[in-house]
Amino acid sequence: MATEAEHRDPCRQSIRRFSVMHIPQPVYLGVDIEIPEEEEEEGDKSTRNKNTRCNCENGQEGVVCNYAISVHDGSYTTDYFSGQLCLHDTANTSYNHHRSEALSKLCDIIQAFSLAQHYKIHMVACSAWNRELQQYDGGDKPEQTAMSYSWSKLDALPVQVKTNGPTADERASAAVRKSVIWMSPNQPGNLPRTMIGFRHEVEVDFNYWIHMAGLADYRETVGKDTWRVLEELTKEFKKRDLKISFFSSTPQGGGVALMRHALLRFFNLLGIRAHWFVMRPKPEIYRITKQKFHNVLQGVAKPGVELQERDKTMFLDWTEENVNRFWADDNDPIKTSDVIVIDDPQVSGIIPHIRRLVDKNKKDVRVIFRSHIEIRADLLRDHPDGRESKTWNFLWDFIKYADLFIAHPVQNFVPDDVPRKTVALMPACTDPLDGLNKYMSGYTMDYYERVFNRMCVDQGAQEVDWERPYFVQVARFDPSKGIPDCLEAYSRLRDRLEKEDYDPAYIPQLVICGHGSIDDPEGAVIYEETHKRASRMTYASDVTVARLPPSDQLLNMILRNARAALQLSHREGFEIKVTEAHHKGIPVIAYDAGGIPLQIQDGVDGFLLPVGDTAAVADYMYRLLTDNNLHAKVSKSARACMTEEYFTVWNAMNWLHLFIEMTNNNDSKGTSTDARLTGEECTRDHNNSGIGNTMKVSDMWRKKYSHHDETKKDCDAT
After folding, report:
1. Res 682: pLDDT
2. What are the angstrom distances between the C-alpha of 590 and each of 495, 559, 667?
3. Model confidence over 96-129: pLDDT tens digits?
4. What does DSSP say about strands 61-72 and 25-34: parallel, antiparallel, or unpaired?
5. Rounded to whole angstroms, how far apart are CA atoms 494 and 498?
6. R_g of the chain, CA atoms, integer Å
7. Taking the alpha carbons of 496, 499, 502, 504 in that order, is the dihedral positive or negative?
8. Residue 493: enclosing H or E segment and its boundaries?
9. Smallest Cα–Cα separation from 661: which of 672, 653, 670, 669?
10. CA distance 569 to 599
11. How far apart are the C-alpha atoms of 129 and 185, rounded to whole Å?
12. What are phi and psi of 348, to 5 degrees?
């Protein structure tokens, strides 16, 4: 017999009083539903047990559904609720329709429960008992619809796990207990642990137990013609039954990791299983790859920083250790993959090992090297004996054995050594449905504002006054990001406002924030240097400097609320934060550096200025602050001029096209290692694919499949 406690109303308003400064308590929920199934096949509703019947709100007879909610605080279960839902039931109502209605009503209850109890729900763990766990490839299944709602509306990670309890409350309790161990205890409390499995493979989304979005959600982010081409590419790829492996330095932090999580998540929805492997971390190696690879090649390294013979030996030993330990056996990815993608210089040393192991195995594998950074080809050209050339020549001895060189769509990013027939261009991307870009409700935004300020307090930083406007630069604490320029431009702006006796209620603030990364040992040093610079400013009380945990929603909030975004990088590959700002309708003031000019139409959706011109930056900050008409016009254009090209679906299509075209004659005899990027017979001829010649990959598949980009019409109209 049910107790009174079991039938408590989860949506009943709490009588507790809360401070205006309180942060809603984080909780994790396990949920389960029970729907009578005995007549599912027969379609005869007349013989259903009277205990399963009810009267719906419209007076019609319905069927009873039981639900259970288990509340977990991260340590143990603290509360639970159970109750009944009345589902509409007619002669034509299917079991799937009942499931859909039950899950929809349960989502409403969860949202009301969150508001009534002043909880911030971080995870909804759904029980998947008595049925096989499914890949939600159609996006129309009730479970995926409910999970998408949980993520997009409640900002709760939706997880589905298999449980075996005999009752709904036991299954709900088991679901949340199984799932909560995957969450990091750090604030804000909804950070999934980074999972590294066998062979140092990244287990994306807990090995795809998290279901943030379905294909139906992604279909809404692109035009019909784009989706048509995607389906054709997916069908062709599946015919090949290809095995794809990505290799990169780290599973978290930085643009490469963000793109790989999004890409593999989307591939999984398409029914494509790709694999992603990372190196075993070694801090002394990351000092070499960051300071003496990246910074040197970008032209931002400090004087005297140069690659030494000892550095080379350490890098080679680290690479060989990872290959032999994780990936060199017969069943490991190097010998079993059809296409291997090498992301960035940190892991370029793997390429000769691939050739050595694959040639022994007599298997023809295609190797793609993707350069994620701005490699200063002009410095290599002008200083053939300089430190930039020494670093590049060391890395080129590995990269030259790849089949294809992928770069951002900027000619100066490709060194002269690389034959142009073997170069293809592909921009970086972001995901429109992840925590960085999804729409967040006012309640959710308010939560992250409070969490952000709490982190500022804990770090000894200034809190943000959310009632006043602010300018923001979201970036890693890196020497190439132009952080001192942000501080100088802000000082110039404030000096001007002081002279004009500007209304104190609208005096803008400056926020500089970003995530850290395990392969970026300079981040902590530059973070501290930025704090010191800011503390010496006249307007230090209005400058916030924060190094945030890997919470995408925190960055989403801080960017979405900004008056304008700054991106004052002196060197930049392709700054995806510009795309993310435009996606939210936030004007961007940026330097004309690297790949940024590809993302901003000067004077339309943002402003491009000469590198180092902080006076001009301050002037445009002033204009966007004081001219509401200009701000509204640029904001509208930022949204209207967004292109599908910089988001996950197009990025996935780029990769699928490459995989298909580069394996067109995969049955042919393997090619000698002398005929890779360095040989006369280059990738374009070797694969008979037409890939290369410094063409954009998207231009190739658009031409082949007669694709029409429907997203440019709105921009043309503005």
Report:
1. 46
2. 21, 15, 48
3. 777 888 888 899 999 999 988 889 999 999 987 4
4. antiparallel
5. 6
6. 27
7. positive
8. helix 483-499
9. 653
10. 14
11. 27
12. -65, -25
The confidence score (pLDDT) of residue 9 equals 74
* Partners of residue 244 on adjacent β-strands: 339
Q: Dihedral, CA atoms, 650, 656, 659, 665, nearest 10 degrees?
A: -120
Nearest-CA neighbor of 374 among 424, 292, 300? 300
Would you tell me how many other CB atoms lie within 10 Å of the CB of residue 37?
A: 11
Q: One-letter amino acid identity for 356?
A: R
What is the rounded distance in angstroms from the CA atom of residue 175 to the CA atom of residue 173? 5
d(CA 318, CA 99): 52
The dihedrals phi and psi of 314, each to the nearest 5 degrees, come to: -60, -40
Whole-angstrom distance, CA of residue 305 vs CA of residue 308: 9
CA 570 from chain center: how many Å? 24
Distance set, CA 12 to CA 7, 27, 72, 153 (Å)? 12, 17, 19, 20
Residues 6+ apart with CB under 8 A from 697: 406, 424, 425, 426, 654, 657, 658, 691
Q: How far apart are CA 562 and CA 583, in angstroms?
A: 13
Length, in residues, of the chain: 718
Which positions of the chain have pLDDT values less than 50? Answer: 1-5, 38-48, 129-138, 667-675, 678-680, 682-684, 686-688
Q: Are 477 and 567 in contact (CB under 8 A)?
A: no
Q: How far apart are CA 393 and CA 358, in angstroms?
A: 24
Say what angle helices 523-535 and 483-499 make with each other, to 10 degrees.
20
d(CA 23, CA 26): 9
- State whether the Cα torsion 651-657-662-668 is positive or negative: positive
Nearest to 244 by CA among 665, 655, 585, 567: 655
Nearest CA among 520, 584, 517 for reference residue 548: 517
Judged by DSSP in three states, 590 sits in strand
CA 711 to CA 698: how far, in whole Å?
15
Number of H helices, E strands in the chain: 25, 21
Answer whether 698's CB lies under 8 Å from 645's CB.
yes
Q: Which of 123, 27, 32, 12 is nearest to 79 (CA)?
A: 27
Q: Mind listing the pLDDT tens digit for each residue in 547-588?
A: 998 899 999 999 999 999 999 999 888 889 999 999 999 999
H/E/C letters for each residue in 280-343?
CCCHHHHHHHHHHHHHHHHCCCCCCCCCCHHHHHHHHHHHHHHHHHHHCCCCCHHHHCCEEEEE
Per-residue model confidence (pLDDT) at position 1: 39
Find the angle CA(138)-CA(143)-CA(147) to the nearest 5 degrees: 100
Residue with tokens 């009578």: 36
Say if residues 357 and 396 touch (Cβ distance below 8 Å): no
| pLDDT attached to residue 683 | 47
Q: 311 is written with which tokens?
A: 């550095």
Which 3 state secondary structure label does DSSP give 678?
A: coil
The first and second tokens of residue 566, run together, are 């700054």
- What is the rounded (10 degree) CA torsion for 239, 655, 324, 241? 0
CA 277/CA 275 separation, integer angstroms: 7
Q: What domains can you pick out in the chain, each with its CATH number?
A: 5-39+50-192 (3.30.420), 215-429+648-704 (3.40.50.2000), 450-645 (3.40.50.2000)
Residue 457: C-alpha distances to residues 390, 450, 453, 467 (Å):
45, 11, 6, 18
Distance CA 16, CA 25 (A): 13
